[in-house]
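To: structure desk
From: M.T.
Subject: fold request, one chain
Message: Could you run this one when you get a chance? Sequence is below, nothing fancy, just the single chain.
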Amino acid sequence: MPELRRDPVTGRWVIINTDNPRQPSEYKVEPQPKKSVKCAFCYGNEKMTPPEITAYGVEKREKNSPGWTLRVVPNKFPAMQIEGNLDKAGIGLFDMMKGVGAHEVIIETPDHNSEIPDRDEKQIRELLWSYRDRSLDLRKDKRFKYILIFKNYGFSAGASLDHPHSQLIAMPFVPKRVMGEIEGSVKYFGYRERCVYCDMIRQEAEEKDLTVSENKHFLSFTPFASRFPYETCIIPKEHFSDFTNINDEIIGDLAYILKDTLTRIRKVLKDPSYNYILHSAPLDDPERDDFHWHIEIMPRLTKVAGFEWGTGFYINPTPPELAAKTLREA
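Reply: Done. Structure tokens follow.
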């Protein structure tokens, strides 16, 4: 009989197939498309993007020219635009405001074919520093309440360009998904006076059933109520609510475990498309005892259909314990 599992943070229920769990070979993974020949993100094509915001690499390099190792530019087709005022208004029972925000693209490397599993630790650290640096800069704008950092890899995960890149969107509100996590964390903390994520880390330290990989400062694990097969979460073992608190002491461990986890997913599932999302605390309340920043990695192996849309439930064909064991042994 399938199991119904409740997420301890959001309260969301998930149906887990424990009778006939699906194995990695049973998932149909779409092959990644052939890489583009002409790419706006490659060396020599810097003029094809909007003017860069910042770049890492050669010192005293001329802006918008080769010599960079990582480059940040505004999105050419932004979901939100940085100019203007919010102009909040009510229209009867409806609320409305202008689509003010920031939408940036982090071009992770000049190498068109180098994804995170292919890079060395120094390159991945640079990517993580760019996430922190852009977050610290954008949080100075008091119009913004939340910064979401995410990566879409593969066409079925929503990647419209195949050159390795991440995206950042600064918003004038806290997204509903994040608010659900915060509200659940607040409720748990109010009852137990402990962080729910810290409790999960402590429990996993004893049981190890969901552990994919770990090092001194970080844990990679499959959530007990995983919505998707092989969904994985990376979380700092020490309590941090704000991602921008990463420092020289821990960033190497984060770079290692991010690469290690994505490499295992690539190997076990034959290079699937995936999304990863970084959830940190809201900008107006970054230091919280009840929330814990984390990265969610979701391979795109199944499709959300009518049942999921109609109920808010998810059906996961592979128990997270089996997924963790398979990834751990890869």
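Reply (cont.): The chain has a mean pLDDT of 94. Let me know if you need anything else for the meeting.
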